[in-house]
Every structure is written in structure tokens, then in C-alpha cells.
């Protein structure tokens, strides 16, 4: 490949890498050629901000760019860098940790690439394109997940720990015998009651999730979505779920992957900056559950928060 002309001093090259956003950008573009909009979605930044950083990196000789239709695509190609620049970048890159921010970037990158692949397959697969478009026009695009809830046994009773405004209960109520919506905040319960007024099979219970006034083995399953990061010690809450779930019953936890957004502690009262999958499994085992597992949830490239996972486990004694 042709070598880029190295017109920058070592000081100028280092200066162009001095901004963390530009370091994150280079790591992404070494992995994958991306458009400005795709980089912006991965980094969760405005396109104008990303364009400015891409311009600086391009002028410093780090990136190559090409046009494809109306889009401009960028890539960091080691073989196209001068020997000095290549050595410098490898040295800098190897000093960077695979921290929570990088892991979040990689998850969002995969989501962006998956969306790109879907678009490409849809464009080139004429039959699939016609069917998907027709199905969307006739039935909308959001019926699959609600339909799958019908797989839940209709006789089940499900306890929703930390129900908030009733989002989970609203999904579950049409498919099970009873939902027990549990929250300690009056405002949340009132909002949930208003939201679920048409569902007669939802029972509301004011309680902390560490000490619920339900009998042992009272429910078939328990859910707890985006709650555990508000609790200093999640194990007592998980043990309480284990107590009220029947032997062989299931628990579902949805929460954030480990992240580095410390501002969440101050702005939203989070006590944990997410959970690593291994740590979540360890917490479930410590609480007495068996066969824990964690799966990543699809990342919406337009979402501004950290990635989410779903952890599930079984109550012992089936």
C-alpha cells in the first residue's frame, strides 16, 4: 500500500492523540471502517463533535477516508501509516486498558454493524425485503416480543421486585394468572396502579424488596429490572426472591454492564456502576440460586445509557 506522507512532527502526532475521544475513535476505526454517523452512534456524541475529531485525526495522518455514495468512510490502516506513526500508535494502543468504556463502545459497534448487515441483506435480498416491508406495513414491527410472552404458563404468579411505574407488570398481566407488583415508593405504586387499572390480576404491595410480606414459595417466578444497582448489598434482595419463588421457579434480573459513568451515582442515586456477568452469577449463587446465566440484550445504537444484560437462575429443590 502507498505510505501516507509524514508531514507531522512527533509532538504534533502525540497532540492529535491527546483527547480521549480521539483515542476511542482510533481504536474503533482500526477495527472497522465507519461513517461519521456510525462513529457518532457508537461514541454517543453529536455528529458535529465527531466530525471535528475526525478532521483532526485525518489532518494528522492517522486516518484514510473514502467516499461511498453520499457518505464518507474513515479507517485507521496500520500498513498505510509511516513507520514512525505505526510504532507510535501501537505503543499508545497497547498502553490502553480494555476498560468499561471500551467494552461499551465494542457492544455498540456490534449493534451498528448488525444494523448495517441487516440493511444490506434487506437491500440485496429482494424477496426478504418485500416480505419484511409488507409485514411491517400490515402488522407493525413490535409484535414479536409480546407474542413470545404467550409461552409463559398461564397459571403462573409472578412477583415484580421494584415494579416502578408498572412497565413489567403491564407486559406480564395479559399472559399470567397474577402479577404482584412490589415497590417501596408510594409515588411509583400510584403511577403503576393508574397504568394497570384495567388489569384485575395485578396486586400491589408496598415493601422494600429485601423483606417482602409474601409466604415462602408463593410465586412461580420473580423479576427485577434495573433495580439492583440502587441497592448497596444486592444479596439480601436476591435471597428474598429465592425465598418467595417455588422450588424450580425462575428469577430474571435485568441490569447494566459495568460502566465508568460515575455521574450516575450523583444524578440518579446509583450505588453500583453496573455488574460484570461473572459477578452477577456469583451474587445469584451466593443468594442460593442454581444454574445462573447471563446474556447480553440487544443494544439500541440510539440509546444513551450503558449496555444491558439479562441474568436468570433457578430456585433450588425442584
What does this structure look like?
The protein is an alpha/beta fold. The chain has two domains: 10-124, Winged helix-like DNA-binding domain superfamily/Winged helix DNA-binding domain (Arc Repressor Mutant, subunit A), CATH 1.10.10.10; 144-314, Vaccinia Virus protein VP39 (Rossmann fold, 3-Layer(aba) Sandwich), CATH 3.40.50. Helix content is 44%, strand content 19%. It contains 13 helices and ten strands. The chain has helices at residues 10-16, 20-31, 36-43, 47-59, 83-95, 100-124, 126-139, 144-148, 167-172, 186-195, 234-244, 263-267, 277-286; strands spanning 34-35, 64-68, 71-75, 157-161, 178-183, 202-206, 219-225, 245-256, 290-296, 308-314. The strands form two sheets. A seven-stranded mixed beta sheet has the order 6-5-4-7-8-10-9, with helices on both faces. Helix 9 (167-172) links the parallel strand 4 (157-161) and strand 5. Helix 6 crosses helix 7 (126-139). The model is unreliable at 1-8 and 122-129 (pLDDT under 50).
Number of separate structural domains: 2
CATH architecture tag of the largest domain: 3-Layer(aba) Sandwich
How would a crystallographer describe the biggest sheet?
A: 7 strands, mixed
Strand order of the largest sheet: 6-5-4-7-8-10-9
End-to-end separation: 63 Å
Radius of gyration: 24 Å
Lay out the secondary structure.
Layout: H1 10-16, H2 20-31, E1 34-35, H3 36-43, H4 47-59, E2 64-68, E3 71-75, H5 83-95, H6 100-124, H7 126-139, H8 144-148, E4 157-161, H9 167-172, E5 178-183, H10 186-195, E6 202-206, E7 219-225, H11 234-244, E8 245-256, H12 263-267, H13 277-286, E9 290-296, E10 308-314
Parallel strand pairs: 4-5, 4-7, 5-6, 7-8
Antiparallel strand pairs: 1-3, 2-3, 8-10, 9-10
Amino acid at each position: 500500500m502507498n505510505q501516507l506522507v509524514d508531514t507531522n512532527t512527533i509532538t504534533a502526532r502525540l497532540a492529535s492523540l491527546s483527547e480521549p475521544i480521539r483515542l476511542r475513535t482510533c481504536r474503533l476505526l482500526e477495527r472497522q471502517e465507519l461513517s461519521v454517523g456510525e462513529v457518532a452512534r457508537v461514541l454517543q456524541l453529536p455528529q458535529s463533535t465527531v466530525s471535528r475529531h475526525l478532521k483532526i485525526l485525518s489532518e494528522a495522518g492517522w486516518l484514510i477516508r473514502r467516499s461511498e455514495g453520499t457518505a464518507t468512510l474513515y479507517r485507521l490502516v496500520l500498513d498505510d501509516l509511516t513507520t514512525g506513526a505505526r510504532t507510535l500508535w501501537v505503543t499508545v494502543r497497547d498502553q490502553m486498558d480494555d476498560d468499561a468504556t471500551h467494552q461499551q463502545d465494542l457492544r455498540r459497534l456490534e449493534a451498528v454493524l448488525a444494523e448495517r448487515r441487516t440493511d444490506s441483506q434487506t437491500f440485496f435480498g429482494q424477496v426478504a425485503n418485500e416480505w419484511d416491508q409488507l409485514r411491517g406495513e400490515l402488522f407493525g414491527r413490535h409484535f414479536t416480543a409480546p407474542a413470545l410472552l404467550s409461552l409463559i404458563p398461564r397459571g403462573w404468579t409472578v412477583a415484580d421486585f421494584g415494579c416502578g411505574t408498572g412497565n413489567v407488570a403491564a407486559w406480564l398481566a395479559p399472559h399470567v394468572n397474577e402479577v404482584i407488583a412490589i415497590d417501596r415508593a408510594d409515588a411509583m405504586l400510584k403511577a403503576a396502579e393508574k397504568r394497570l387499572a384495567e388489569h384485575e390480576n395485578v396486586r400491589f404491595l408496598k415493601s422494600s424488596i429485601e423483606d417482602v410480606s409474601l409466604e415462602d414459595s408463593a410465586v412461580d417466578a420473580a423479576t427485577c429490572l434495573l433495580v439492583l444497582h440502587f441497592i448497596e448489598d444486592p444479596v439480601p434482595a436476591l435471597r428474598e426472591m429465592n425465598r418467595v419463588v417455588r422450588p424450580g421457579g425462575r428469577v430474571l434480573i435485568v441490569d447494566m454492564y459495568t460502566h465508568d459513568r460515575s455521574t450516575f451515582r450523583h444524578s440518579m442515586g446509583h450505588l453500583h456502576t453496573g455488574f460484570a456477568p461473572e459477578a452477577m452469577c456469583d451474587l445469584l449463587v451466593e443468594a442460593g440460586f442454581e444454574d445462573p446465566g447471563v446474556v447480553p440484550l440487544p443494544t439500541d445504537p440510539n440509546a444513551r445509557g450503558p449496555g444491558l444484560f439479562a441474568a436468570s437462575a433457578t430456585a433450588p429443590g425442584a
